[in-house]
């Protein structure tokens, strides 16, 4: 249900459970986390995307009831993505919901297709957000808009998400892979030291 591809320094993980809106099981999350951890020092570009018209609906409902909603594997995944010294891209082929927000927020770039929706309904479901997600979300959209998403449980449409800074670019579905390739080219041609050094400067380190 996770397709892993490596082409030299270009690595891509595809969430491949379209019949279940790409909802995530513990095994799928652990596989994604391990892939992101292994990418460190080997990949220059790491891409997350999904199959079908939904990036991910978040946790599988049965798994969530069994404890996945509060499992530390979510933080393991987002932490590995945040620590990645290359360029990480969330190629959002559709709607992003719930705990799946964390992996997208931890990426360097978020590219989405028109018609995507963004919502994080933990306030309605009786859970807290994953620990690192609120600060990353507020860093992108500001505290008030983060509260609209996390506390107001608002669904944000793609155009509004772009205006807020939640996503960095909207592209037509058929241009998603081409856009990812274009964004990756300069990094793939650069040295690992230049990539890591540039990220450190952007972060003020």
What does this structure look like?
This protein is α/β, with parallel strands linked by helices and 205 residues long. The protein is built from ten helices and ten strands. It has helices spanning 26-39, 61-65, 73-83, 101-106, 122-125, 133-141, 143-150, 158-164, 176-189, 192-202; strands at residues 2-7, 10-15, 45-50, 54-56, 87-92, 95-97, 109-112, 117-119, 156-157, 169-170. The N and C termini lie far apart (37 Å). 41% of the residues are buried.
Secondary structure class reads: alpha/beta
Percent strand equals 15-25%
Question: How many β strands by DSSP?
Answer: 10
- Fill in the CATH topology: 2-enoyl-CoA Hydratase, Chain A, domain 1
The shape is globular
Mean pLDDT: 96
Task: State the CATH superfamily name.
Answer: 2-enoyl-CoA Hydratase, Chain A, domain 1
Q: List the strand order in the largest sheet.
A: 1-2-3-5-7-10
First-residue to last-residue Cα separation: 37 Å
Give start-end ranges of low-pLDDT stretches: none
**Proportion of residues in helical segments:** 40-55%
Radius of gyration: 16 Å
Counting H and I runs of at least 4 residues, what is the number of helices? 10
CATH class assignment: Alpha Beta
User: Into how many domains do the coordinates divide?
Assistant: 1
What's the architecture in CATH terms? Alpha-Beta Complex
How do the SSEs run, as a string of H and E?
Answer: EEHEEHHEEHEEHHHEHEHH
How many strands, which pairing sense, and closed or not: the largest β-sheet? Answer: 6 strands, mixed
- The assembly state of the depicted protein chains is single chain
């Amino acid at each position: 249900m996770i397709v892993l591809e490596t082409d030299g320094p270009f690595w891509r993980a595809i969430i491949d459970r379209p019949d279940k809106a790409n909802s995530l099981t513990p095994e799928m999350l652990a596989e994604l986390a391990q892939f992101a951890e292994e990418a460190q020092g080997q990949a220059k570009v790491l891409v997350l995307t999904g199959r079908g018209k939904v990036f991910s609906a978040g946790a599988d409902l049965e798994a969530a009831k069994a404890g996945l909603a509060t499992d530390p594997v979510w933080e393991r995944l987002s932490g590995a993505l945040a620590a990645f010294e290359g360029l990480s891209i969330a190629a959002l082929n559709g709607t992003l919901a719930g705990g799946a927000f964390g992996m997208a927020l931890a990426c360097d770039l978020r590219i989405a297709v028109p018609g995507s929706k963004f919502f994080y309904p933990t306030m309605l479901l009786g859970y807290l957000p994953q620990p690192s997600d609120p600060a990353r979300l507020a860093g992108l959209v500001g505290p008030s808009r983060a509260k609209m998403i996390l506390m107001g449980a608002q669904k944000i449409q793609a155009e509004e998400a772009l205006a807020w800074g939640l996503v960095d670019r909207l592209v037509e579905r058929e241009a998603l892979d081409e856009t990812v390739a274009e964004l990756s080219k300069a990094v793939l041609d650069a040295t690992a030291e230049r990539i890591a050094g540039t990220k450190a400067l952007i972060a003020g380190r």
